[in-house]
Amino acid sequence: MNFAKVLLLVILAIGAVIFINSAYVIKETQQAVVLAFGKVQEINGQPGLHFKTPFYEQVIMLDKRILETESKAEELQTVNKELIILNSFTKWRIVDAKKFYEKLYNRTRANDRIDSVVNSNVREIIAKITLEELISGSRGVVVGDVMKLSKPKIEGEYGIEIIDIRIKRADLPEENANYVYNDMKAERNKEAKELRAKGSQDSRVIKATAEKEAKVIVAEAKEKSEKLKGQGDAQSIKIYADAYSKDPRFYELSRTLESYKKSLASKDTTLVLDPSVKFLDPLQAGK
Length: 287
Description:
Blueprint: H1 2-22, E1 23-26, E2 30-36, E3 39-44, E4 48-51, E5 57-63, E6 67-70, E7 74-77, E8 83-94, H2 97-103, H3 107-126, H4 131-135, H5 139-158, E9 160-171, H6 174-246, H7 248-263, H8 281-285
Antiparallel strand pairs: 1-4, 2-3, 2-5, 6-8, 7-8, 8-9
Helix pairs in contact: 3-5, 6-7
């Protein structure tokens, strides 16, 4: 009886060991690489409970999520021999688990390889641009160029998809910061002076043009005014001439009365004239 119990316990223990060594669980964020003596037998990406041949097959879990590799900060040199401290980070994921395992084995070696390739390409691109171009907003161009160089070297060979590369930090060495700042300040002041000078010149040109146009407008207005005045005078003369031709005596009397009106407009006006002057004829004729 005791022997039977011991045998049962031994069988249960062996069964438990076999189950433990044959069952494995894949999470939603994982994919399994099933190995047999170090060689890939199967890639399993279905979440849940799965089984393998105990003691013969081995399971390695790889992450299916987007992963990130951050490079160490390095001192790089621009095209103008200016120094800058820069580091970047790369977002990537495993798209071919078999190739990834055979080439890199694990994430640590993958990080090292990605860091090496990306840093090399960043160094190459930074060496082609100026510090001002990098600081003033050309990071997108730099990142795009690094992506173009890095993707072919990593994706096809290691079963990895490069999703994004970004520059995390771009600082000047402390000994160069003040020099570069003063140099950039002087450059900005120079540009400001040039803009002010150009603005002053444009202002003078606009003012001169406006004055010229104003003079032309005034001259044209005067010319038009004189022309209209001349036309009015001519029309007035014509009217008077027409009136005179119809009744010369009435016209002469009208003109004389108008002269009296203008000459005697004020009560204080006194006229001393010779009686023989024709100007008095209408008055004398009325006696």
